[in-house]
Amino acid sequence: MERLALVVPCYNEEAVMKISSEALRGVLQDLIKKKKIAEDSFVLFVDDGSKDKTWELIEEEHRLHQNVKGLKLAGNVGHQFALTAGLLTAKDCSDVTVSIDADLQDDVSVIEEMIDKFHAGNDIVYGVRKDRSSDTFFKRFTAQSFYKLMAAMGVKTVYNHADFRLMSKRAVEQFSKYRETNLFLRGMMPLIGYQTDCVYYERKERVAGESKYPLKKMLALAFNGISSFSVKPISLITTLGIIIVMLSFLAAVYALVSYFTGHVTQGWTSLILSIWFLGGVQLVSIGLIGQYIGKIYIEVKQRPRYNIETFLDKKESSGNEER
Ligand code: UDP
Ligand code: MG
Fold first, then answer.
1. pLDDT, tens only, 225-273
2. CA-closest residue to ligand 1 atom 23
3. Using CA positions, which residue lies closest to atom 12 of ligand 1?
4. What is the pTM of this model?
5. Which residues, including other chains, have CB under 8 Å from residue 231's CB and lie 6 or more apart?
């Protein structure tokens, strides 16, 4: 039976720690009783440099309960990094991980379904929100525009999926080969490949405490998501440049007609022609340079170029096959 690790990033979550720990331990016990996971499965709380009592509470939970582990980061690095730290630490002592927020907004009761789907052969199971009725109109609107913009920019993401997700050990291992520093996990997971599935749930209100994702952080995450995955904005410059060069020919006709028919101030025609034409040429040139920078950008990420799922080889495929 597989050992499950529930990975929970926590930043200033003293208000929810106790409730969260109890709920998550409950999930583990239930799954252990149903013989779906191994008995030494555990919850791993990652303290992302909290300034309140979060770490003390984690220490206490660890003291009181055998299946609670704690990882304290040296400073606040943000949710995406804290989660990565948790996943990479958990992978060495577990077979499957589920990442979930500390505030219990994600429905813990679907973890069982995730495990079932994992046993059915999926390496990644995405938790997808059924509806966003618990969100404010503003959050709903901004979030949905964000997914649409991402899709338009050619970044593959799972619609309405945040970071509530099951990953097998080998999926986390593949993920660890993506060594980029600008993390946008939701965009990276679909790059890993393997068989994936979704479970659907209703996202609830926070049990206690306040959101650590103010608008500023949300916008930063959105911009990071696009700029880490897409060089399309650069192509847009080139396209704009080409459009302006074409417009400059129209402007040329207009300027010349004005010159020959009207009473234009001396010097206007040549000036206006230069502005349009050179403006366009400059944009095309910047875009062109941008294309190369875009390639350099992709190269320096040194992402794996492919991930191997299975290798059929007579000598090794006898006996028990690796999962
Ligand atoms: N979080 C974190 N580091 C941060 C900010 C948030 O580890 O710098 C954690 C936080 O404790 C929570 C999760 O990330 O478990 C999601 O944050 P939050 O619930 O505040 O975001 P929201 O659900 O409002 O988008
Ligand atoms: Mg939350």
1. 888 888 888 999 999 999 999 999 998 898 889 888 887 888 888 888 8
2. 211
3. 101
4. 0.83
5. 290, 291, 294, 295, 297, 298
